[in-house]
Input
Amino acid sequence: MERTLVFDTAAQLAETHANLHANISLAEEKLGVKLVARDAWLSIKGRAAKVALAEKFFETLRKARKQGLRISSADFANMLGRASAGKIDEVARVFDSPIVINLKKKSVVPKNINQKEYLKSLGKYDVVFGVGPAGTGKTYLAVAAALAKLRDKQVERIILTRPAVEAGEALGFLPGDLREKLLPYLRPLYDALNDMLGAEETLKLTERGVIEIAPLAYMRGRTLSNALIILDEAQNTTREQMMMFLTRLGENSQMVVTGDITQTDLPKRGKSGLKDAVETLAGISGIKIFTFEAGDVVRHRLVAEIVAAYGKTQKKDVQQS
Output
């Protein structure tokens, strides 16, 4: 059987496979078809069922690109892996009834079904826990949702915080002014803001206090109203710090707590405040605990395999201990 997909331009076709011909070869291998990409058309040859799968896969990529997703090679590989594993309907569902966050510098689009459900949760619950491996987008999407709410005047400010556990949160002994001391610990949050707003707009909003980025220790004693507050790297909080943070929630505010329970930097005897909160707060109305898996990683394809491999090792260690 043979099918031919016709795109508006050659560039549109190239964008579906991240402008890498190697991805066409990868799709041939994974989907079991023969592909020829030329000018603005894509020819698909093979057995009927496999051709139908390949056609749906590339049509889904076309739809994703039209919604604003800049498909990277990692995105292509991740979605191809799901499609070849019999999850093409799941991949397609991500881009049906789309969620698109249009920000000043870019559009943010969920890349898998769990990211889409997570974004829905961010629009529904007052307290959301995003728990899972690095690279699943839990913090990045939370920042995007926060910026959208700020833009739409649903909140007056955004507060981004994380525990500076490596410095014991003392910070006084470090050289430089406060911003210079904090920057190494808060750099990932600035990176996300710069990516979505640009460095100039980010600086403008932080100088005005519309966006506040501070270590967790600076939250003590405050009531945070009319704000969206994100606690990142929450696995490095203690039980007491987590309780302190969550009880800062004020009127017309939302809290998002993100972290990876398996990556705590706390002393071995200390229990992660994130792990404790997930166990303690499960089932409370208004609180959503959302769990990502290794398969949700949207970085380089090897990251998901690395996370899965370490997960297996940790399970063996627990069983043997």
